[in-house]
From TrEMBL, chain A:
This is ABC transporter permease. It is found in: Cell membrane. Belongs to the binding-protein-dependent transport system permease family. The lineage of its organism: Bacteria, Pseudomonadati, Pseudomonadota, Alphaproteobacteria, Rhodobacterales. The chain crosses the membrane at residues 23-44, 119-140, 152-177, 217-236, 279-303, 323-344. GO terms for cellular component: plasma membrane.
UniProtKB/TrEMBL annotation, chain B:
One of its GO terms (biological process) is protein transport. GO terms for cellular component: plasma membrane. Signal peptide: none annotated. It holds the Pfam family BPD_transp_1. This is ABC transporter permease. Gene3D superfamilies: MetI-like (1.10.3720.10). Residues 101-290 form the ABC transmembrane type-1 domain. The chain crosses the membrane at residues 39-61, 105-130, 150-176, 222-248, 268-290. The keyword Iron-sulfur does not apply.
Length: 352, 304
């Protein structure tokens, strides 16, 4: 401020404020990363053994038809030009047509994505509600039984195949105990009752006041969401514990204790306040991991989300859909990564 | 004085007489620290057990893992001499698990031969060369680091075709960036040290410095990281197998076995459950071992 007042008269100063420079650098990183992602998916689409022309026109087309489609798809142009066209298309939201469903891939993804979002959001919510307190208590009572529980939860979470735990969960809670509904998003009698608003069934049925649908949808989503929540709880509690240990060992905490503050104020009012930003970045990463990690869970629970979409397309050799889905998840993943990075770098004074 | 005590004193001496004694002594002290970690020893034990099971699978197996017997399909564990029962084609699950251990170990070895090596080369070259080479290589690393790994592995397998080797390649292509980061960080701390200057004055070229003097010093941090990552790699490989993109039937790969048993989960729980326990055992073992190794090799990173 002071600088612009003294030097700003009569001529434009070119020195940009430091936050603006960092913002530019971050944007350049985002652009480079997304371009890299598109390059990888482009190369995957090109090196794959399936002939993209035959995939469109079928085996029995004549040579003339083949040549025409070859040109239409732009395959006669140099590779870099093809890549340029590809980037342009993707930036406009055009991923090509799905061979399997016959629709635009972008339309397909718009239809299936809310289901994944709903599942991952609920999963992260469960992970945060259970994981943060568990991590804090494990750090405060280091070495106690609750710390051992936290460690055990983490070890299981890092070692158990999610698709297997999902199957066992189905067997126990659906097959034997009957506490929850089985695979799928909602029972057959409740299908198509709720007019979509957001595409997320729980939100839509609540907004429309269809509580019977809401209850049924909830009984379907709770098991897969708890499963994903367990994995994100394992990660979040582990990170929370190590952040808290770092804070609790520092001198200001000792000062606060010496001052005679209650343990509650020391832990939550002082130590926890200082890990909030780190924690938000961890939660954001956990969320990104769930969006990606829901692929296997969706298969187990026949959940009609983007993970199921990609896998089914994969088995049907429908490359446009696979790559479109990969790009969408990739961009969200990169976005969340950058978001947590920005949050950390811009709002945590220690990062400077 | 008996022989063992003599060896022990020789190994634990404070004044090693030779370079070999000093090296063996530090290994032995590391082993003593490691041995006191019960959980890490448990992990090591489970892994040794699985390796032995894989080696002696032909002797330990009670049945041919590929032999189908449709008359005896979906037998419960213990029935008619099938320890873990039979699957939907009447194949003995116990024997298939044993042979599956071979596949898991094969996958682990393949990934270990590719991902850390790529990371090591990228990281040390970037760190040692510096300048624009460093910038470009690290940009590429960061780009790969920001990708969703499972989804990208899926897309790679889709392009390359399903199969164990392609699954391993796909996993390796997404797994190397952290190793490059570690190797670069190590290189940056090593490259300006006095002993590197001394070697350079003796006339050693960059290739010799990197391969003979920097690589050996990066190994221990890489080993820890690889061990800790191994559980994740096994889970990803099993996940690809489960989706039908890794090992192909009739291969007794554990993930593929779960996939086959999935249809029968509600009535014949053991078909899908038992291979899952095997996957859990091997990845848990790697996690425990990795934690223990970290405590021994890299005490400053320990978080217990």
């Amino acid at each position: 401020m002071a600088q612009s007042q003294t030097h700003g008269e009569g001529r434009q100063t070119l020195s940009l404020p430091p936050w603006f420079k960092r913002l530019l650098a971050t944007l350049a990183t985002v652009a480079a990363t997304i371009l890299g992602l598109l390059f990888v998916t482009f190369m995957i689409g090109r090196v794959m053994p399936i002939d993209p022309v035959l995939a469109v026109i079928g085996e029995r087309a004549t040579q003339a038809q083949y040549d025409e489609t070859f040109r239409e798809l732009g395959l006669d142009k140099p590779l870099m030009v093809q890549f340029g066209i590809y980037v342009g298309d993707v930036l406009l939201g055009d991923f090509g047509k799905s061979i399997r469903t016959g629709q635009e891939v972008a339309t397909d993804i718009g239809r299936v994505f809310p289901a994944t979002l709903e599942l991952a959001t609920l999963g992260t919510l469960i992970g945060v509600i259970l994981g943060v307190p568990l991590g804090v208590i494990a750090a405060v009572r280091r070495g106690s039984w609750i710390d051992q529980v936290a460690r055990f939860v983490g070890l299981i979470g890092y070692s158990m195949p999610i698709f297997w735990l999902g199957l066992v969960g189905l067997l126990v809670f659906y097959g034997i105990l009957g506490w929850v509904s089985g695979p799928g998003r909602v029972g057959i009698f409740y299908q198509g009752i709720v007019e979509p608003i957001t595409g997320m069934l729980l939100v839509d049925s609540a907004l429309r006041g269809e509580w019977a649908v809401f209850r049924n949808a909830f009984s379907h989503i709770i098991l897969p969401a708890s499963l994903l929540g367990y994995y994100s709880m394992a990660y979040i509690s582990r990170m929370t514990r190590s952040f808290m240990l770092e804070q609790l060992g520092s001198e200001y905490v000792t000062t606060a204790r010496v001052k005679g503050l209650s343990e509650w104020q020391v832990v939550w009012g002082h130590a926890f306040r200082n890990i909030r930003i780190q924690l938000v970045t961890v939660i954001a990463l956990a969320y990104a991991n769930l969006l990606e990690g829901s692929v296997l869970t969706e298969i187990i629970f026949a959940w009609p989300g983007i993970g199921s979409y990609i896998t089914t397309s994969l088995l049907a050799n429908d490359m446009n859909s696979v790559l479109g889905g990969t790009i969408v998840i990739g961009v969200i993943f990169v976005g969340i990564n950058i978001f947590s990075d920005i949050l950390y770098r811009f709002f945590d004074p220690r990062a400077k | 004085m008996n022989g063992t005590a003599g060896w022990r004193d020789w190994l634990l001496t404070d004044e090693p007489a030779s370079r070999r004694q000093a090296r063996l002594s530090s290994w032995y002290k590391g082993w003593l620290t490691f041995r006191s970690n019960t959980l890490a020893m448990l992990g090591l034990g489970v892994l040794l057990f699985l390796i032995l099971a894989a080696i002696f699978a032909p002797i330990l197996a009670t049945h041919d893992p590929f032999a189908q017997d449709l008359g005896n399909r979906l037998l419960a564990p213990g029935e008619q001499g099938h320890f873990f029962g039979t699957d939907s084609l009447g194949r003995d699950i116990y024997s298939r698990i044993l042979y599956g251990a071979r596949i898991s170990i094969y996958i682990v070895l393949l990934v270990v031969m590719v991902a850390p090596v790529v990371g090591l080369i990228m990281g040390t070259v970037a760190g040692y060369a510096g300048g624009w080479i460093d910038v470009i290589l690290m940009r590429i690393t960061d780009i790969f680091l920001a990708f969703p790994r499972l989804i990208l592995a899926l897309a790679f397998v889709a392009a390359l075709g399903a199969g164990i080797e392609n699954a391993v390649l796909a996993i390796s292509l997404t797994a190397w960036p952290p190793y490059a980061r570690i190797a670069r960080a190590e290189t940056l701390t090593i490259r300006n040290s006095d002993f590197i200057h001394a070697i350079r004055l003796q006339g050693a070229g960059p290739v010799r410095i990197v391969t003979r003097h920097i690589w050996p010093l990066c190994i221990s941090s890489l080993v820890i990281r690889v061990t800790l990552d191994m559980a994740g790699i096994i889970l990803t490989a099993a996940g690809l197998g489960f989706l039908g993109l890794g090992a192909q039937p009739p291969s007794p790969e554990w993930g593929a076995m779960i996939s086959e048993g999935r249809k029968y989960i509600l009535d014949y729980w053991w078909v899908a459950t038992i291979p899952g326990i095997a996957i859990f055992a091997i990845s848990l073992a790697f996690n425990l071992l990795g934690d223990g190794l970290r405590d021994v090799l890299d005490p400053k990173e320990s978080n217990s």
